[in-house]
Amino acid sequence: MSLRHRVPVSTIMTKNIITLNSTDKLDTAERLFKENNIRHIPVVEGDKIIGMLSLTDLLRISFADGAYEDDSEVETVVYNMFTISQVMAKNLKSISSDTTIKEVAEILAHNEFHALPVVDGETLVGIVTTTDLIKYLLEQY
User: Fold this and answer.
1) Which of 60, 61, 67, 128 has its CA 20 to 30 A from that of 1?
2) pLDDT tens digits, 50-76
3) Within a domain: residue 76?
4) What is the pLDDT of residues 76-120, one digit of tens each?
């Protein structure tokens, strides 16, 4: 398997990004996760990323394991107790669109998170996840 070493992350990243604002409610976030079948949503102010909300973060606060299957009232109460700002990851590592896929793989392999925002200047231009990476690697075989 010969990977083309200089392929930029822009070739595999998601460009039409679903985002949240810090003022959005957590049940809005849950709806976006479900409707779009995604696991990470950047939190933005304008074009600038200020945090990343993951489905795991959301599930962690809706502590009942079964809560995700049925829209129970308990979940709504829990969601109203927290804000997106409280739940999102704030110290984000970001990459630029010309970062190579190999570099992205190394970053994701050595960290506990599974998504990286792609930022050019201060503008959020994409998001790349471990899933994007795996799909790319499978296509190389």
Assistant:
1) 128
2) 999 999 999 888 765 454 555 556 667
3) yes
4) 778 888 999 999 999 899 999 999 999 999 999 999 889 999 999
Residue 3 falls inside a structural domain: no
CB atoms within 10 A of CB 110: 7
84: domain CATH number is 3.10.580.10
Residue type, 35: E
With CA atoms as reference, report the closest residue to 53 among 66, 63, 44, 45. 44
DSSP annotation of 128 = E
Exposed/middle/buried for residue 26 (C-beta within 10 Å: 0-12, 13-18, 19+): buried
* Two tokens, residue 141: 């075989």
Asked if 88 contacts 53 with a C-beta cutoff of 8 angstroms, the reply is yes
Q: Is 44 helix (H, G, I), strand (E, B) or coil?
A: strand
- The CA-atom distances, in angstroms, between 84 and each of 29, 38, 64, 106, 118 are 8, 17, 19, 29, 21
Are the CB atoms for 114 and 138 separated by under 8 Å? no
